[in-house]
Automatic annotation (TrEMBL):
GO cellular component, one term: nucleus
Key word Transmembrane present: no
Cited InterPro entries: WD40/YVTN_repeat-like_dom_sf, WD40_repeat_CS, WD40_repeat_dom_sf, WD40_rpt, WD_repeat_DNA-damage-binding
UniProt-recorded name of the protein: WD repeat-containing protein 76
Species of provenance: Brassica napus
Function: Specifically binds 5-hydroxymethylcytosine (5hmC), suggesting that it acts as a specific reader of 5hmC.
SUPFAM superfamilies tied to this protein: WD40 repeat-like
Lineage: Eukaryota, Viridiplantae, Streptophyta, Embryophyta, Tracheophyta
UniProt record similarity statement: Belongs to the WD repeat DDB2/WDR76 family.
Gene name per UniProt: BnaC06g40270D
Domain of life assignment: Eukaryota
Length: 495
């Protein structure tokens, strides 16, 4: 039975329904609902994304506004800051940046396939051929090929082997002993230089440079003023950055190159070919030879591995898988004791090793120099009595003493970026000075090992980029080469 409240509720519902029916409220509500669900007009459709133009609009920004050094990227591949060569348009320059599809050639590479320069490399072959090793057992003496039974240098029709050059015996940096001339500036390779070396010959001024694109360029500074040949010869024997260049000790016509592509090639001028010496799936970060052994190659591949390769037998004779915890950046040997080897590593250490007592499994170091960050080089001085290390922690270490017991750290700004090669301090022509790049001033700092500080800065308006990798001519005192991220080489000479 319904309650009084329920009867009143039902009565109110009935009256409300009668009132809504009299006002036709439900019919108007249906019309309003139908109107809201009506299809929209084409002009009121949801917005579509605008199609991108076929040619994207590039907003140009300067390097300075992007927080980069204005000169850190280097110059375009086709640019030449030297009147020696007419710039080649970018679309015609064959040494473009490597693509991921670059395929390694696991075979000898003839000169005609590897040569990527202008003109011909015939003059380079004629220059280097007289320094090939003679079959009768000749040997190199101060840059000239001499027979053991003959006191006269082998001419082979080349007058430059006979000329006498007067060079200073020692360079002091209390004044301005070196100068940079316009004709000693040239772009040798198109990419960033990682390795630069003088040919160790007193009477031929030849520079070799390897860049990040796999190119190896040669520059004969003696071809000054020649219209037919500017002395620059470009080859491309690799498909990745060239990590090291080594001139064969007793046959300077042979140049060994290693690369991040995992290949080691031997440039043989006599055969006009880049022979394949070694191949690996691991990048090769450094390569060197002992002063008394030209048949063995010491190189690092992958992370921490050191391999000893016999050129004559064509096989590995020693292999250490974990000499360092990270990649080995440099390998060098003492001239005083060729059995003593120095290695530097990204693991923050530089180590001295005795090859006679390293063992096959767990080699022990003679001495270790520790830095707080990666060490990119460890080089012996000309006498073999000192070692210089260069680290990203902004120190250059000096290891000296009869038993390598003295370690000193010299403060130096070694900071670089991804666009320029890391700094590596190199020794001069004796144990007095170390040369290393200066990033802010685009110069070369001269560090006195006696005073433990920078005593001089080599700087010239002609040098418009940072000389990251440096090499001092081993025989011509006062001749120094600095190389840049733009592929330029600057050669300083005595005043």
């Amino acid at each position: 039975m319904a309650t009084e409240y329920e009867r009143k509720r039902l009565e109110n519902i009935r009256r409300n329904d009668e009132m809504m029916a009299a006002l036709n409220v439900r019919a108007k509500a249906s019309l309003l609902t139908a109107a809201t669900k009506r299809p929209r007009d084409e002009s009121t459709k949801s917005y579509k994304k605008k199609e991108k133009p076929e040619t994207p609009i590039v907003m140009r920004k300067s390097l300075r506004t992007r927080g980069l050094d204005p000169d850190s990227v280097g110059l375009p591949y086709w640019f030449s800051d030297s009147p020696k060569r007419i710039p080649t348009p970018p679309q015609q320059y064959s040494s473009a940046p490597l693509q991921k599809s670059s395929v390694r050639l696991l075979a000898p590479l003839p000169f005609d396939k590897a040569y990527d320069g202008e003109g011909s490399c015939k003059k380079l072959i004629e220059t280097m051929l007289p320094f090939a090793k003679k079959s009768c057992g000749g040997k190199m003496v101060k840059g000239s090929v001499k027979d053991e039974n003959d006191d006269s240098p082998m001419s082979s029709g080349n007058d430059y082997l006979k000329k006498e050059v007067v060079k200073p015996e020692k360079i002091e940096f209390d004044g301005e002993p070196l100068s940079l001339e316009p004709h000693n500036v040239a772009r040798v390779v198109p990419g960033r230089i990682l390795a630069v070396k003088f040919m160790p010959c007193q009477n031929v001024n030849l520079v070799a440079a390897g860049d990040k694109l796999g190119n190896v360029g040669f520059w004969n500074l003696d071809c000054q003023g020649e219209e037919e040949d500017d002395g620059i010869y470009l080859f491309r024997p690799h498909t990745a950055p060239v990590s090291s260049l080594v001139f064969q000790q007793n046959s300077l016509s042979k140049v060994i190159s290693s690369s991040y592509d995992g290949l080691i090639r031997l440039m043989d001028v006599e055969k006009s070919v880049f022979d394949l010496v070694y191949s690996s799936d691991d990048a090769i970060f450094s390569l060197s030879q002992r002063p008394d052994d030209e048949q063995s190659l010491y190189f690092s591949a992958g992370y921490g591995m050191l391999n000893v390769w016999d050129l004559r037998a064509g096989k590995s004779v020693f292999n250490w898988d974990d000499l360092h915890e990270h990649r080995i950046n440099s390998i060098d040997f003492s001239s005083q004791n060729p059995h003593v080897m120095a290695t530097s590593s990204t693991d923050g250490s530089a180590c001295l090793w005795d090859l006679r007592s390293m063992g096959a499994t767990t080699p022990k170091t003679l001495k270790t120099v520790n830095h707080s960050r990666a060490v990119h080089s460890a080089y012996f001085s000309p006498s073999g009595l000192s070692l210089a290390t260069t680290s990203v922690d902004n120190y250059i270490g000096i290891l000296s003493g009869a038993n390598s017991e003295d370690i000193s750290m010299i403060s130096h700004d070694n900071a670089t970026n991804r666009w320029i090669s890391t700094f590596r301090g190199v020794w001069g022509w004796d144990d007095s000075y170390i040369f290393v790049g200066n990033r802010p001033s685009k110069g070369i700092d001269v560090i006195s090992t006696k005073l433990k500080r920078t005593v001089k800065e080599l700087h010239d308006p002609l040098m418009r980029a940072i000389p990251c990798r440096i090499h001092c001519h081993p025989l011509n005192v006062g001749m120094l080469a600095g190389s840049t991220a733009g592929g330029q080489v600057y050669v300083w000479t005595p005043k």
